[in-house]
Amino acid sequence: MDLHLTRGYLGIGIRDGGWMASMLDFVTGGKTGLTLPAGFGSVVVINEDKAGKYLPTIVKHEEVHVIQQRTLGPFFPPLYGLGHLLYGYDNNPLEVQAKKHQQ
């Protein structure tokens, strides 16, 4: 597990096979990364083994979620959840924005 504090968030890089990788898979339905709000900013968790050569793209994607969390504050989790319920993961407006800026 790699820890780093950069750009106002705590980044946690995990590897396959550990309990954290299993938990990430369980919570996200098999996605590679997750951004969570925290009292000091955000926590970004990425399975670096699963990301492979796409790690830089996934980091950019999760950094968009960090900006969204800073902008929306406590409204981010319910708005993300509502977008997920109404449009599904792929069409969630917050995911669409993150995918647009990950390149």
Could you list some keywords that capture this structure?
alpha+beta
Major sheet: arrangement of strands: 1-2-4-3
Q: Classify the helix fraction into a percent range.
A: 55-70%
Give the helix/strand class: alpha+beta
Total domain count: 1
How many angstroms separate the termini? 26 Å
Report Rg. 13 Å
The outline comes out as globular
- Main sheet overview: 4 strands, mixed
Q: Count of DSSP E strands?
A: 4
Total number of helices: 5
What is the H/E order?
A: EEHEEHHHH
* Poorly predicted spans: none
Describe the protein in words:
With 103 residues, this protein is of the alpha+beta class. It has one domain. 55% of the residues lie in helices and 23% in strands. Strands 1-2-4-3 form a 4-stranded mixed β-sheet, sandwiched between helices. Helix 3 (55-72) crosses helix 5 (93-101) and helix 4 crosses helix 5 (93-101). The radius of gyration is 13 Å and the shape is globular. The two termini are 26 Å apart. The mean pLDDT is 86.
Please write out the topology.
Blueprint: E1 2-6, E2 9-14, H1 19-28, E3 33-38, E4 41-47, H2 48-51, H3 55-72, H4 76-91, H5 93-101
Parallel strand pairs: 2-4
Antiparallel strand pairs: 1-2, 3-4
Helix pairs in contact: 3-5, 4-5
Gist?
The protein has helices at 19-28, 48-51, 55-72, 76-91, 93-101, and strands spanning 2-6, 9-14, 33-38, 41-47. By secondary structure, the protein is an alpha+beta fold.
